[in-house]
UniProtKB/TrEMBL annotation:
One of its GO terms (molecular function) is metal ion binding. The record marks 15, 22 as: Transition state stabilizer. It comes from Desulfocapsa sulfexigens (strain DSM 10523 / SB164P1). Pathway: Isoprenoid biosynthesis; isopentenyl diphosphate biosynthesis via DXP pathway; isopentenyl diphosphate from 1-deoxy-D-xylulose 5-phosphate: step 2/6; Isoprenoid biosynthesis; isopentenyl diphosphate biosynthesis via DXP pathway; isopentenyl diphosphate from 1-deoxy-D-xylulose 5-phosphate: step 4/6. GO terms for biological process: isopentenyl diphosphate biosynthetic process, methylerythritol 4-phosphate pathway; terpenoid biosynthetic process. This is Bifunctional enzyme IspD/IspF. Bifunctional enzyme that catalyzes the formation of 4-diphosphocytidyl-2-C-methyl-D-erythritol from CTP and 2-C-methyl-D-erythritol 4-phosphate (MEP) (IspD), and catalyzes the conversion of 4-diphosphocytidyl-2-C-methyl-D-erythritol 2-phosphate (CDP-ME2P) to 2-C-methyl-D-erythritol 2,4-cyclodiphosphate (ME-CPP) with a corresponding release of cytidine 5-monophosphate (CMP) (IspF).
Length: 228
């Protein structure tokens, strides 16, 4: 099946507090987004990649990718939207009708292995939709008024969602149509709302999303560890 990867990277990184969007920040000397795109070029299931960036950065990102040897007809850079889901939608709208499977992966999540991408693809082919996730390992508390614990949430069967999130393109398009203007933080939420079964694929503890400044320190360490 023809598989496209959409990489939303059009956010501003407000929680990171840098003077530029975090996906352009250097990790081991290379922009985070370059790391992410590189991993997708080495996954065997991926036929084409659409990188979605802030409108004013489309041209500079094409150049940035080319500087790192990433260019060609299979790599597109397009402008995103206001919310993550709008950026993903822009990516979906840019795909041609021949695409069967679509993968969505955060640009700010550079530390995944190509193998996880392939396993998400395989699961989407088998089940229709699948996401990477890891079992929750901490004890979870439901907080209430005044910062008081209301109760402990049983973590059995609880998973922390990651990306890649993979599905048949037709299923995700239908889910977008059904959701209208509803706000979500991942594609699986849309598929769940549309009644589509989404399969869990075991991800990796090191597949972190770089969100806050501490994550950069952790990501540098993980990167060093991968290299040795
Ligand atoms: N993203 C996007 N378009 C948006 C918002 C986010 O493509 N309008 C992307 C981000 O660039 C990131 C991914 O979605 O790669 C996950 O979002 P998040 O970690 O929340 O990044 P930001 O929105 O940039 O960060 P923040 O929420 O702290 O502002
Ligand atoms: Mg955000």
């Amino acid at each position: 099946p023809t598989t496209a990867a959409i990489i939303p990277a059009a956010g501003s990184g407000s929680r990171m507090g840098l003077d530029h969007p975090k996906q352009y920040h250097l990790l081991a000397g290379i922009p985070i987004l370059v790391h992410t795109v590189r991993v997708f070029t080495s996954a065997s299931c991926v036929d084409m990649i659409v990188v979605v960036v802030p409108a004013e950065r489309v041209e500079s990102t094409v150049n940035l990718m080319a500087d790192h040897g990433l260019s060609g007809a299979n790599l597109q850079v397009i402008a995103g939207g206001e919310r993550r889901q709008d950026s993903v939608k822009a990516g979906l709208d840019s795909l041609n009708a021949g695409v069967d499977i679509v993968l969505v992966h955060d640009g700010a999540r550079p530390l995944l292995a190509p193998d996880l991408i392939d396993r998400c693809c395989d699961a989407a082919i088998e089940y229709g939709a699948a996401i990477a996730a890891v079992p929750v390992k901490d004890t979870l508390k439901k907080g209430g008024p005044g910062g008081r614990i209301l109760h402990t949430v049983d973590r059995k069967d609880l998973w922390q969602a990651q990306t890649p999130q993979a599905s048949r393109l037709s299923l995700l398009l239908a889910a977008y149509d059904m959701a209208g203007e509803r706000e979500v933080t991942d594609e699986a939420s849309l598929l769940e709302l549309a009644g589509t079964d989404v399969h869990l694929v075991e991800g990796s503890e090191t597949n972190i999303k770089i969100t806050r400044p501490d994550d950069l320190i952790i990501a540098e360490k993980i990167m060093q560890n991968h290299e040795t």
